[in-house]
């Protein structure tokens, strides 16, 4: 008998154009996992609206992200690719789980604290509840593993806490998910300020590289990346800007940081930065070409996300029914 494969759930929110951080920290790893696991890869549009989005841009980006998944090598026949809002169970399960989540634990979330600081008075309740929707995303598919960058570890921990709480109050309902954090490229930092992560909603475009940035823009941004005055290519916490660029080069060329240090001994930053830029371009150019092709074929994209939503609806509905039953909600027969 064929052994049941472990389930993976992961997603990216269309709150901005995707960065090299999203690519290295998430998508590139998903490609490696698709043969071994039963994967659900989602465009989490409901997460994007926790901060205000322009409707036209949101639609465009949602489809572009789906195209990026496929163009990066995620096979739509092997994996379930879908758009979160096409599967109403996400929102419904999130409501139920909200009732098993404490305000105190939500207010400790670093991402909430960072984002709400920037937003001043206009912090939506959705932003506060974001981790509960994320918990629902994961738990309704009984995901065993959730591949995320280091920045999302805290959200995964709260999802585990909520699941355990629900299981303890009733009886085992959810699989307790584990984070799957890649050792390489777990956190790509901002090019202008290496103390914060590269983020798609960053205001200064020189801080990030977009997956769809043209080659000349990539060259310019990498050449402007903040380093230091030491002039030595060294993988050290004292040189966070250089360390970040070494990390990027290492993930893209598979050379270890030590090998990279050796290659650039006595060479200064100009050659190093130029090689980092070329490695990024080499990785992204074929993806960009494919994305443009896919974006010109909306009916193909529709076929993929419809098929994905069908499977996701079917699987998640079973979990929702279980939750409803345990809580004491009266099921309605079909
Ligand atoms: N800089 C990063 N390094 C490594 N991984 C990263 N991820 C994001 N930034 C980095 C990973 O990408 C996945 C999807 O993230 P998301 O878009 O759903 O949310 P996010 O982590 O909040 O991403 P951003 O780019 O920072 O978006 P905004 O600015 O809109 O909040 C996750 O697996 C994440 O770890």
Note the main attributes of this structure.
5 strands, Tyrosyl-Transfer RNA Synthetase, single chain, three-stranded parallel sheet, Rossmann fold, binds adenosine-5'-tetraphosphate, 334 residues, 13 helices, 2 domains, mainly alpha
List the helices and strands and how they pair.
Blueprint: E1 7-12, H1 20-33, E2 38-43, H2 45-48, H3 55-71, E3 80-83, H4 89-98, H5 103-107, H6 110-119, H7 125-139, E4 145-147, H8 153-169, E5 178-180, H9 215-223, H10 240-253, H11 257-263, H12 268-295, H13 298-327
Parallel strand pairs: 1-2, 2-3, 4-5
Helix pairs in contact: 3-12, 4-7, 4-13, 7-8, 9-12, 10-12
CATH architecture of the largest domain: 3-Layer(aba) Sandwich
The domain tally reads: 2
What is the CATH topology of the largest domain?
Rossmann fold
Which molecules other than protein and nucleic acid are bound? adenosine-5'-tetraphosphate
> Unreliable runs, pLDDT <50, ≥5 residues?
none
Q: How confident overall, as mean pLDDT?
A: 94
- The radius of gyration is 21 Å
Taking the sheet with the most strands, its summary is: 3 strands, parallel
CATH level 1 name of the largest domain: Alpha Beta
The largest sheet has its strands arranged as 1-2-3
Let me know the number of strands: 5
Compute the number of helices. Answer: 13
């Amino acid at each position: 008998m064929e052994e049941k494969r472990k389930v993976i759930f992961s997603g990216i929110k269309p709150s901005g154009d995707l960065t090299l951080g999203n690519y290295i920290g998430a998508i590139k790893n998903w490609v490696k996992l698709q043969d071994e696991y039963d994967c659900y890869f989602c465009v989490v549009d409901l997460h994007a609206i926790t901060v205000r989005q322009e409707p036209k841009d949101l639609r465009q980006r949602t489809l572009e992200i789906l195209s990026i998944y496929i163009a990066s090598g995620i096979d739509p026949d092997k994996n379930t690719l879908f758009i979160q809002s096409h599967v109403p169970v996400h929102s419904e399960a999130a409501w139920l789980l909200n009732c098993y989540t404490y305000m105190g634990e939500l207010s400790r979330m670093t991402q909430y604290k960072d984002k709400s600081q920037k937003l001043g008075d206009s912090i939506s309740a959705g932003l506060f509840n974001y981790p509960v929707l994320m918990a629902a995303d994961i738990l309704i598919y009984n995901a065993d593993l959730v591949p995320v960058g280091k920045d999302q570890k805290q959200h995964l921990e709260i999802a585990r806490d909520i699941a355990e709480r629900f299981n303890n109050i009733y009886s085992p309902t959810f699989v307790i998910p584990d984070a799957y954090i890649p050792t390489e490229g777990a956190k790509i930092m901002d090019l202008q300020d290496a103390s914060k992560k590269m983020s798609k909603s960053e205001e200064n475009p020189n801080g990030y590289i977009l997956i769809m940035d043209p080659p000349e823009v990539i060259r310019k941004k990498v050449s402007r990346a903040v380093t230091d005055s030491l002039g030595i290519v060294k993988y050290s916490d004292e040189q966070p800007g250089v360390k970040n660029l070494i990390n990027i080069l290492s993930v893209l060329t598979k050379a270890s940081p030590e090998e990279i240090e050796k290659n650039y001994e006595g060479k200064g930053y100009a050659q190093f930065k130029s090689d980092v830029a070329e490695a990024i371009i080499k990785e992204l150019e074929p993806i960009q070409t494919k994305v443009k092709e896919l974006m010109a074929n909306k009916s193909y994209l529709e076929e993929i996300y419809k098929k994905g939503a069908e499977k996701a609806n079917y699987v998640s509905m079973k979990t929702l029914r279980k939750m409803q039953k345990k809580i004491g909600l009266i099921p309605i027969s079909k």
